Amino acid sequence: MAKFGMVIDTTKCVGCMDCVVACKTENNVPEGFNRAWIVEDVMGKYPDLHMEIRSERCNHCEEAPCVDVCPTGASHYSDIGEVVLIDHDECIGCKACIAACPYDARFIHPDGYADKCDFCFHRTSKGKNPACVDVCPTHSIHFGDLDDPDSEVSKLLKSRKYHVRIPEAGTKPKIFYLT
Amino acid sequence: MHELSITRHNELIDPTLHIWSWQIPVYLFIGGLIAGMMIISGYFLLKGRAREAKCTCFQLPILSIIILSLGMLALFLDLEHKFYFWRLYTTFQVTSPMSWGAWILLLVYPALILNLLLRVPVFILNRIPQLGKISEKMNAHPSTIKGIATLNITLGLMLGAYTGILLSTLTGRPLWNSSVLGFLFLASGLSSAAAFVHMIAKTAHERDILTKADNGFLTLELVIVAFFFIGLLTSSASHKAAADLLLTGPFAAVFWVFVIGIGMVIPLFIQSLAIKNKIKHTVVAPIMVLVGGILLRFVFVYAGQYSHWLIHAGLFK
Amino acid sequence: MNSISRRKFLKISGATIGAAVLSGSMSSFVKGADNKINKKDIKGIQKIPTYCAMCFWRCGAIAHVKDGKLWKIEGNPDDPLSKGRLCPRGTGGVGTHYDPDRLRSPLIRKNIRGEEQWVEVTWNEALDYVAKRMIDIKKTYGPESMAMFHHGIGATFLEHMMKSYGAINFGAPSFAQCKGPRDVAFNLTFGETVGGPERTDIENAKCIVLIGSHIGENMHNTQVQEFSKAVANHASIIVVDPRFSVAASKAKYYLPIKPGTDIALLLAWMNVIVNEKLYDNEYINKYGFGFEQFVAQLTSYTPEWAYPETGIEPDVIRKTAREMARYKPATLVHPGRHSTWYGDDTQRSRALALLNALLGSWGRKGGLYQPTWLDIPAYPYPDYPKSNKKKLDNPDEKYPFAIEEITTGVREATITGKPYPIKGWFVYGTNLPYSLPQPDKTIEAIKNLEFLVVVDTIGSEIAGWADVVLPESVYLERYDELNNPSFKVPYVGIRQPVVDPPGDQKPNYWIAKKLATRLGLDKYFPWKDIEEYLDYRLQKVGLSLELMKEKGIFLAPEQPIYYEDGVKPYFGTPSGKIEFYSLQLEQKGFDPVPKYTKPEEPPAGYFRLLYGRAPVHTFSRTQTNRILDDMMDTNKVWINKDVADHYGIRNGSFIKLKNQDGVISNKVKAFVTERIRTDCVYMVHGFGHTSKMLKGTYMKGADDSRLITQVKTDPIMGGTGMRVNFVTFELEA
Ligand SMILES: Nc1nc2c(c(=O)[nH]1)N[C@H]1C(S)=C(S)[C@@H](COP(=O)(O)OP(=O)(O)OC[C@H]3O[C@@H](n4cnc5c(=O)[nH]c(N)nc54)[C@H](O)[C@@H]3O)O[C@H]1N2
Ligand SMILES: Nc1nc2c(c(=O)[nH]1)N[C@H]1C(S)=C(S)[C@@H](COP(=O)(O)OP(=O)(O)OC[C@H]3O[C@@H](n4cnc5c(=O)[nH]c(N)nc54)[C@H](O)[C@@H]3O)O[C@H]1N2
Ligand code: SF4
Ligand code: SF4
Ligand code: SF4
Ligand code: SF4
Ligand code: SF4
Ligand SMILES: [Mo]
What we know:
The complex is a heterotrimer of chains A (179), B (317) and C (733). In chain A, the strands form four sheets. In chain A, strands 8-1-10-9 form a four-stranded mixed β-sheet. Chain A is α+β, with helices and mostly antiparallel strands and 179 residues long. In chain A, 21% of the residues lie in helices and 25% in strands. Chain B has one domain (23-313): Formate dehydrogenase/DMSO reductase domain (Formate dehydrogenase/DMSO reductase fold). Chain B is globular, with a radius of gyration of 21 Å. The model of chain C is unreliable at 1-10 and 18-36 (pLDDT under 50). At the A-B interface, strand 2, helix 2, helix 3 and strand 6 of A face strand 1 and helix 3 of B. One iron/sulfur cluster binds at residues 58-61, 64-66, 84, 101, 103, 105-106, 116, 171 of chain A.
């Protein structure tokens, strides 16, 4: 069983938003909405500053509160890769999942259902990379099977320092940020 | 200095979450109110004190059905994918309070109808006279009455608690991450229900009973509120910041003045005087309790959406 | 300065290629584009190679067309510039095709210029009218009185048409508003320009020095890709910028320099390197000219001297100088690109060039490599008509080292009518009120015109001033000239239509040819259509249009690009060497070795206005693209937190900027941040549109150009230094 995850290198990312744009065209994300976004996290006082730039999206949490609270089962884990997916035809648009997500990763699609990053399931379920991974001009985003010790993502996590977003929320994110 | 700039600007999500407006607090309030009414009427039925509390026992079921339906309408209005509503009933999701709620509500209606059948309102009886017979039969068996009472109390407890638990399982919003929220909303539902009956009750005796009950509920509520804040304030920085939204932050005025002052402390004071016969019973106090109850839901729903794991994340969007 | 040789690249001949084509395998993943342009009826996904025009980098791209509709655009893996990954603008190019604000049919002005009242006309009417007006101007004033402003490769055929007509006055903002000072300085020093794509070997550099150059925000794709590789390789990065740029956040050393004082820093660095003998002695002995005289002039520029000027501490200056020397010659002091900053820009760029020379990085791996080029012969045209008038952009060689035309010179002549009147402008692909500083002067010049025709894709500000607006199809809907740059590998790329234009838009070559016919210039357009033209050129090097339509890119065999790999050093300077001491400059009365002049201080309560790029936009041209607007729909004014607190400006609140001449900007949001010095503010160029035709971006954000009412002109080459304006805040309720 594969467990899909992402490892994003904040030391290389320049915050160009190419990942966001590629996501948009690949997945026809409607105008006014984005499935991914960029955070510039700055600490310090000029000129002694540290800035971490992060490309963020749904963390495909292992303990996903959005799945737990969904009353219809529309939000679920996929069989391939344990990706958190939303079945549009089962979604009633109650927005509980949105409130449950500590990362604000979800939104309501203009057609009424909850939507978010799906790890480009139409690609990744067939062994391809997500669109944002393949577009990133700085090769900052890595995608793969966290359960496979030989995968690039696993190796990166073994050799580099990293953190996840808001670990205290207990969601066990599957997106890791290299620092 | 810590600066966070976020490029995301999704509607309803940014700069701060505002997925829920009036529909959800109204629905939660009504849910709590109905829960309270079911428990109170069930209690009197169970104790065989229906005669002492006629309103409670015999008017509430029909009122409950009507009011609850308004609440359900509010909930429906909030749904974004409305015509997939039926999907709620093709599955049961154990971890989802909302799924529990959907099924509880499905059971609440028959429970209320059974309760209603114990004393069918005249206007219905005129139209469907056969109901009179059924009612007579049911009333003939005390065990049936007790059964109905127990059913109403149980479902009432579940419904009341569910409205709070619903919020408390929404991990994303630190303000709601409290296990006492279920109790708080239940207690608030009970006090609202008591106040509501107090308002419509025709006899001084019934009013008196309910005022006493209400004072109990209000006191309980205040204690739970205290526990709620102690819980948040002793938790993470995000939880503390969330608590501060109500205690000192942008929602503090409404919270202190309307929810705590007008909704709990002042009516408690007025009602205590009334119980001690220092003043007459007045509808002012129960109205205050109801206003406080509804604003409690508004404040919690709005401030909760505003609260965030990233403290002040909204500021730099 | 025609004496300066501008292109002495290693050339590859057609014969080598023929062989390479035969042996080289065709990449099979790209399905060839159908010959017919109309692809509406084709079901399924077609992948059509082309090259991007969201900026001038020209990355190879593959457009994905699904059921006849443009779906997405990816990089072409064969392309040496993109290596299969476009930048956000290239990826978002989809939105340029679908832009609801596109011009749809030719327009002729109804009322007064600039009122944006139009009559929609047919192409025949529009072209007849343009031709008639051009003929009138030719008759009355001569063809020299019809000037052309252009930018980008799309201008090729229209420029050719204008030259055939007899025009001699041209101008592109890429010189006097962009890389002019840099190219002139490097040309003076090494006898060659830096070119574009810049000849920077970022990926192999062990130490990278960025003076301003905000790579990562400046999204020139290859630069960014290589920069991130260098970061991953732990290259030592030194960033000099008054603003904590994205690049600064990757740097080992961030030097928060006082704006306008870079020459002082560069001189101090060179002083340290020379005093401590850290330079590449052998290299300088071999290739240097005037080194002793240069050294003699450096003595007083100690780090202690530079400190009060730049605000950079002496020990930091020493440390960073030693850091550069440590990694030489793989130390790249990036020449920058947009370099028209303070009017002393050629000298600053000279200092940059000399620092590279000291470190021996010119021509070396990890430095400024020697580009190669695939020599594709030009299409043979008859000679252009001769004129006895002189170009008027640079009268009497006032700016003696200008190696290209000066836009603002043409504008000035249009205002003064001297030495002869300019009565018509043909504008292609440059939004002059944005690209030229002092937009009031641009308007003043336009008011002197009898005729202004603008070819654009959207209703830009310059289109708003036109008499005739000709709507061009966007790059995804047309062929263009071959992309044949000098780069690390010799190659050629093709642009071809991937979808049909949504309205009555036409491509530039079509417009050029149709106009030529009307102007009686058919002999200059001997090719039947663009396919014939492109095929002709490609056949000359053993390629064909058919092949290129399928592959998109053809890579010729690699050539050495470093001295150490056998490239023979060649310096096109008068001395044939690297000119540390420039006799050329001295002869014309300029400093032969750069000197520092103090920049003007902002008046009390004013802040220097700086500007730059955002990764998701290109100048003033992408703001109506709905996808890119969704990424960033406005610029913001960066204000230091302490300054903002002092003025009571909250992050995200609206303010206006007022400059030293009382010009007030659109209202714009404040970005209150630690990431900038207290003596300047910063904004991204290209926002604050005032053309009503640009509905999607109308009045969003503020326009820096409007606030640039002052310039300092570079006396060496005529570039307009634009960071010499000061603004204060107008707080809004
Ligand atoms: N996304 C995107 N990328 C682009 C373009 C685009 O439109 N969009 N345009 C392309 C073109 S044509 C060009 S010319 C380039 C321009 O891009 P660059 O050549 O990188 O332009 P600069 O003016 O060097 O860079 C602006 C930076 O200079 C800093 N700066 C301002 N004043 C000073 C100073 O006095 N000293 C120093 N050391 N730094 C200073 C600013 O803070 C800012 O970070 O970008 C190219 N890349
Ligand atoms: N204030 C200020 N001025 C600057 C700069 C700055 O940073 N600040 N940067 C300077 C620099 S470095 C440069 S290189 C220049 C850039 O100057 P320009 O290249 O003139 O840039 P834009 O403002 O984008 O204007 C381009 C115009 O071409 C149109 N256009 C785009 N695509 C096409 C096409 O396919 N066909 C046709 N016919 N038209 C098209 C656009 O709609 C737009 O009107 O500006 C310079 N001027
Ligand atoms: S595309 Fe890559 S470099 Fe650009 S923002 Fe996304 S992760 Fe960062
Ligand atoms: S990031 Fe949010 S939406 Fe995604 S799995 Fe975690 S909780 Fe769910
Ligand atoms: S909005 Fe849809 S996906 Fe989210 S919890 Fe409700 S039903 Fe599930
Ligand atoms: S994985 Fe796919 S859906 Fe998710 S952010 Fe990347 S491109 Fe978008
Ligand atoms: S750098 Fe970006 S916009 Fe420019 S040509 Fe390349 S992909 Fe296109
Ligand atoms: Mo430029």
